[in-house]
Amino acid sequence: MTTIKQNVDMMTENKKKDKKSNFNVKILPLFKLTFKMVFLGGPGILYVTIMPFCLLLLEGLVYINLPNVSQAETFSKLQQIIGAMALMPAISVGVFVVPFTLIEIKDSVLFKRIGATSVKPYMFIFTVISASVVMTTIGLFWTFLCGGLFYGWNYGWEVAFPQSFGISLLFMLIVLILSSAVGLLLASFFTSRAVLGAFSGLLFTPSLFFTGALIPIDYILAAPELKYLVYISPYWYCAKPFLDIFTTGNIVMTTQNIINLAVSCGLIVVCIGLTTYRWRWSK
């Protein structure tokens, strides 16, 4: 009985060592290399840090200096811009970081050095999404900090932070999931980084505009020619509930909001389904 128990203990210990060795030899280097590629190897970090900083400063200076505008109205416009700008990290991650990194991973020979050819395909996606979540989180709080430092002294620090932080994070998570799903779909359609870059730029700018990052969303919805065009942006359906919570602190589950959330979930399913169908890991 003692011998059998010792053998079982040895087998259990060997399995633990094998798992630890596999993690140190393959999984950990994969994470390190992926995070390095995400943060240092592409334009994503610029869209997460530099662009929100510049746009918040420039747009804010415009609205605080508008003539014949009350302080309450200026507060509302600044709050809308900061809330919409908080979506920029999640959108840029989906449009730029996820597809570019996955294509780079597929083409890179560096992974052969860490034995990545035997790593399951889902690990590639998991490491990229993990790095994207970290980048989005950094960008989110960086945007709040910039908004507070720029305009919190005159309009109160609440101008730069969600009225209901917990619920806002929930809807931000939906935006991030949708954005990552769009990024996976782009990576499955494009193999050339040049073509992907051109298409991503075309997708990114309208997405910023129709979520209110360039112009307060009230102005867009007030224009008869534009208020229906917002629906061409895949991010609008989850961005609108987020902006409502950011500015008011609550959300009323009207028929329109329920439809928006249903469309967001539907887009996530469609993007992931098409990605699964089109992706050819063997290639």
Automatic annotation (TrEMBL):
Domain ABC-2 type transporter transmembrane, chain residue ranges per copy: 48-245
Membrane topology (UniProt): Multi-pass membrane protein
GO CC annotation: membrane
Pfam families: ABC2_membrane
Transmembrane segments: 37-58, 78-103, 124-153, 165-187, 194-217, 258-277
Domain of life, per lineage: Bacteria
Keyword Transmembrane helix: yes
Cellular localization per UniProt: Membrane
Molecular-function GO terms, alphabetical: ABC-type transporter activity
Alphabetical keyword list: Membrane, Transmembrane, Transmembrane helix
PANTHER family xrefs: DOXORUBICIN RESISTANCE ABC TRANSPORTER PERMEASE PROTEIN DRRC-RELATED
The name this protein goes by in its record: Putative ABC-2 type transporter protein
Biological source species: Spiroplasma syrphidicola EA-1
